[in-house]
Amino acid sequence: MPINIPDHLPAIDILHRENIFVMGDQKAGHQDIRPLRIVILNLMPLKETTETQLLRLLGNSPLQLDVCLLRIKNHQSKNTSQEHLMAFYNTFDEIADQYFDGMIITGAPIEHLAFEEVSYWPELQRIFDWKLLHVTSTLHICWGAQAALYHHFAIPKYPLKRKMFGVFAHRLRCLTPLVRGFDDQFAVPHSRHTEIRQADIEKVPGLTILADSPEAGIYLLATDDGRQIFATGHAEYDSDSLRKEYERDRERGLEIGLPLHYFPGDNPENPPVQTWRAHAHLLISNWLNYYVYQETPYEWQGGTR
C-alpha cells in the first residue's frame, strides 16, 4: 500500500526512482481507505534528507499512511529554506487539536546543550505531554529519545569522552513484537556525543531495554505498553550519511575520527557498504504493525478509523 505525502514534496521523485510506492494528496483523496495518520517532528538540520530517509522506511509497509510534517514554531532553520518549511510543514499550534496513530520524533545535533538550555525546550515539552493523549505510539530517535527519556522519566544523558561514531553490532536483550524477526546480531549506525546508562533505566518501572551493543551501549528500549519507543541510533541513515558527517566535521576543523566499522579497510576512499538496511525496514514495519495499526483505537476523539 502507498504512503500519502504532499504532492510536490522533493522526496517524491527520489522515492519513485527507488520504486517506493508513494501517492500524492490528490490521488489519495479519491480512495475509500482511512489511512493511518503519522506525524513526524523533524528536528534535524537537513530536513529534506531526513524526510526522504524516514518516508523510504514508512513507504515499505503494506499499510496506507497519511504523513504530516511538523516543525518547531520559533526555531529558525539554517539548512532548510523557509519556502520548503512553509509549503510542507505544520506548527504544533496548527495540529494540537488533532489525533494521530503514530509519531516519529527525530534527533537533533544539540547534545552539547543541557536540555533546559535548548531554545525550543518549552515547546518540545508541550509536544511530549501532548503525544501521550493524542498519539497511539511514538518512536523517538537519538537526541529525541534522550530528550523524551529525560522529560518523562528524569533519565539523564552523560557526555562521552569520544563521539560514538560508526556502525556497531547489536544484540537482543528482550523479545517483544518490536524486535520480531531480528537477527541475533544486527548493525545500526550511531552518531552522538552523549549516552544513557542502564542503571538509570532500571530505576524506572515499566521501561525495558530491548537491544544494546557491547561498543555503543543501549540502543533500543520501550515502555511496557508500547506507547513510547526509544532508539539511540540512526537506523534511518543512508549509506553515505556517516561519510558526509565525517567530511563536514573535518572541513570545520573539528576533532573527528573515522567512523568505526564503516569504511572498508578503514579507508575513506572506499565506498561504505550499507549493512543495516534490513534492520531499519523491519524496525519500522514492526512498529507500524504491532504498536500502531493493531493498537490504535477504532475511534479517536478526533475521527474514526
Fraction of residues in H or I helices:
25-40%
Number of domains: 1
Biggest β-sheet description: 12 strands, mixed
- The strand count comes to 14
Identify the CATH class: Alpha Beta
CATH superfamily: Class I glutamine amidotransferase (GATase) domain
Q: What multimeric state do the chains show?
A: single chain
Structural class: alpha/beta
State the helix count. 10
- Poorly predicted regions are 27-32
Describe the structure.
The chain is an alpha/beta fold and 305 residues long. It has one domain: Rossmann fold, CATH 3.40.50.880. 30% of the residues lie in helices and 27% in strands. It has ten helices and 14 strands. Strands 1, 2, 3, 4, 5, 6, 7, 8, 9, 10, 11 and 12 form a twelve-stranded mixed β-sheet that branches. A two-stranded antiparallel ribbon has the order 13-14. A hairpin with a 3-residue loop joins β10 (207-213) and β11. α1 packs across α3 (47-58). The two termini are 16 Å apart. Residues 27-32 have low confidence and may be disordered.
How is the secondary structure organized here?
Elements: E1 3-5, H1 11-17, E2 22-24, H2 25-28, E3 36-41, H3 47-58, E4 65-71, H4 82-88, E5 89-91, H5 92-95, E6 100-105, H6 121-134, E7 135-141, H7 143-153, E8 158-172, E9 185-195, H8 198-201, E10 207-213, E11 217-223, E12 228-231, H9 241-251, H10 277-293, E13 299-300, E14 303-304
Parallel strand pairs: 1-2, 1-4, 3-4, 3-6, 4-5, 6-7, 7-12
Antiparallel strand pairs: 8-9, 8-10, 10-11, 11-12, 13-14
Helix pairs in contact: 1-3
